Each structure stands twice: as C-alpha cells, then as structure tokens.
Amino acid sequence: MKRKIWLILFLLPMLVLAFPKTSLAQSEAMIQFRLHKLIGTNEQSENIGILNNEQGINGASFAVYDVTNAFYQLREKGFDLEEAQQIIARQGTPAGDFIMEKITRTVDNEEGVAVFDLPEKEQEKDKVYLFVETSEGLPDSDPTQNMVVVLPIYDEKGQKQTTVHLYPKTTQPSSSLVFEKKLAEKVDNFSIGDTIRYSLKLQLPDRLSNEETCVISDHADQELAFLPATLEVLVAGEKMQEFTVHNQENGFSLVFAKDKLASLAGQTVNIKYQMQLKKEAIADQAIYNHAILDIGEDSISQTTHIRTGGKWFQKVASNNEQQPLEGAVFLVKNQNGEYLHLIDGIYHWEKKAKDALTLTSNANGLFSVNGLKDGDYQLEEIKAPAGYVKNQSSISFTVKSMSYAVDGKQSDPLKIGNKKKSQSLFFPKTNEQKAAYFVIGIVIVLGCISLLIKEREKNNETKNEQN
C-alpha cells in the first residue's frame, strides 16, 4: 500500500506538468481577421462586413501594422474616430509598427483570403490595426486602399465579433472629386509670430445637385491662430462670394450656398489663407492643421504639419563642467546682429539691445530659447554669474530639428564656460578693478611722500649734529 502511495506522489508532479499551462500571452483575447481580395472595384461594398460572394484573387500580399499609439494620440488632439482613421490611412506604414505579412490563398473553399490572428487589447487598451496591400502587378487586380480597423467590432445585433471580414476597396475613386491641402511655403519650420500660408484645392465632380451640402472645415492645433482677413476663395481666378464663413480662433468653416452648388460642377475651387504661430508653440513638436471636406455623402480629410525650433544651454565653470552656474544673463542675436524681442506674443528682431528678450541660467545652469525657425544664431552674455568673468565674445549656436527635444525629451545642452575672477591681495572684497588701481596709486603716492618726509627729517638731523 505504501509503495502505491509513493508511486502516486511520484507521478503526480509529472501529470501536472503534462497539462498545458495557460501563459499570459495565451490568456490574451485574440481576434481573427479574414481579409478578402476581390475582383472589381467593390466601391459600393462596406470595408467591414459579412462574407461576400464575389470572386477572390489568390497571390495578393497584405501587411498589418500596429497603429494603436498613433490613433490614440490623434484622438487626444481632438479628432473623432473616422478622422483619425483617415489620417492614419493616408500616412500609411510610417504610422505604426510592422507585425506580419500574409498572402491570399484558398481558405475553406474560398479564394483570395488572408487570415490574421491578432490580440484584441494591450494593457486594457483596444488595439488599432492598419492593413496595407504590398502586392503589385497582379492580373485582374486593382491596388486597394489602406484600411484602419479600430477594435472592438460589433455586428448588427450588438454582439462583439471574434472573426472580422475585411474587404479593401480599390484606390481608384468612382468620381472626379479631388480635395488637397498644402503648406504654401518652401520650409516647414517657423518662428513665433511668423505668418504661414496654406492652400486648399477642391475639384468638384461633373455632376452636382443643389440638394447636396458642401462644407469645408479647417482647424489647426491651438498653437496656430487663423487670420480671417487673409481668406480668399477663387474659381477660375475670380473671387467667389457664394459661401458663408464661420470663423474660429484656430480655423474656419466654409459653407457653400446650396442654390449655387450645381453651377460649380466640374470646376476647381482654390482657397488661400494664413495662420500665425503663437507663443504657446513648443519646439520640436508637430503642430497640425486639418481640413475636412463634407460633400453629399462623401467626406475627405487632409492634414499638414509644421514645427518650430529651439536650443538648450548650460552655464558651467570653465575648470569644472560638472559645476553649474546660476544667474548668467544672455541676449539672442541673429546673423544680422539684431536682438530678439518678444512684443505682444510675437518675436521681432531689432538693432537695439534695450528691452530685448533675456535668458537667465537657473540653479542647474540651464536655460533655453524656444520658438525659432531653423538657422544660425548667437548669444551675447550681459551678466556673468557672481564671482565669474563675463564672456566678451558671442557664443554661436544652431537651431535645427531635434536641437531642442528628441521624442519629447530635452536635447543635450550646449555648455558655456565662465572663468572665475582672480582675487586681489589688497582688496579681496572689491569687484571694481579701476577703483582698486586708484586706491593702490594713492597708497604708493602716500608712501613716497612719507619717504621724502623721513629723508628730509634725516637730513635736517645730520645738519644739526654738524653744527
């Protein structure tokens, strides 16, 4: 009996080990995507839905990317779900991290299917995936649009789906509708107070109804201010008046008159306007400007972005870079020798140094300039830290991408050294060299007079002794 008990106890751990363990990865809920590559444009079909009966194409390759972070960052900036999807779809693969690539094949007697098994969540956050076709030159096949899928997906009964069928649409539009947004500048970096030109181009379809609505909404991040007086709407080079404008601090909405819309069929509408970069802008952070066209049942979103630059510095002792110096004060100059001024939230360059913007090193020796366009500049030291000699020469520095921050973290500062003042043997407490020399001169003169007096007294004593 004892032998049987010992045998059971011996085999029990082995039996436990024989059963599969549920790892953390296995316990994560998974969802299956079945992507269908179909013949034809499939423009009228939904991107996501139930199984379709159209013929599929084998041999097409599709890649999937994790765009969860990019999606939620856009949502935090105020974009709704569809806008964020459209932006990421246009950005394509740079918006996320590559996961895997699959080739369509015959699955369950259906051609043109690629199956992806992917996690539903990560750290309690619903996942977002980008599907991109990577195949080229397939017969009877048109390239398809990028697809952004935000989880979870529910069916018509409100039940969460564990298998989702995807039907990517072709990239060829079914109408001549075109909507473009551009930054009408040669550069994409600006200084605080700069005005920035933008343009919108709307190519309207050949057929339009006066029953349709046409609205263009243009909204930028809070670091940009819309300048209403700069708005121009042109058709065939002529200013157009058949619209209503609703202005906001950082954008506008332009509503075309319904009764005039049909007369614009097939024409191109060009919209020009300007925005101004505000002092709230932070260097090396993208500042977005979004435009959305809503016409009939169609909606198109376009986005551009700009940035501003800056530079970090650290004041240190010349003989010890680990020793920060507090209280140094600087002015900023451009290549023309003009000084940077901040007036009513706008940067100006002026010849005078009076009332110019000052930068002061803190207890860690750090200070920075923010809101400058890329280029070469100089610092002029106007006050040295206590006990140190002021730099007589200007300090050159360059503003460029990531000279202020990299991925939201402060860039390495440019270190600026100061020499310690030498202490006078006679006047250790004075900082005025001229005053010291003056006092020393007086002492020398008094000493000489004293010697002359003593010499005269000595001579008089000698004469008296001789007499």
Automatic annotation (TrEMBL):
Transmembrane stretches in the record are 435-453
Keywords of the record, alphabetical order, are: Membrane, Signal, Transmembrane, Transmembrane helix
Q: Does the keyword Transmembrane apply?
A: yes
Domain Gram-positive pilin subunit D1 N-terminal, by residue range, is: 50-169
Keyword Transmembrane in annotation: yes
Q: What Pfam families is this protein classified in?
A: GramPos_pilinD1 (PF16555), SpaA (PF17802)
Looking up InterPro entries in the UniProt record yields:
Fim_isopep_form_D2_dom (IPR026466), FM1-like (IPR048052), GramPos_pilinD1_N (IPR032364), Ig-like_fold (IPR013783), SpaA_PFL_dom_1 (IPR041033)
Q: Which residues form the signal peptide?
A: 1-25
List the coiled-coil residues.
Answer: none
Q: Where is the SpaA-like prealbumin fold domain?
A: 318-402
The protein's name: Fimbrial isopeptide formation D2 domain-containing protein
- What's the source species for this entry? Candidatus Enterococcus wittei
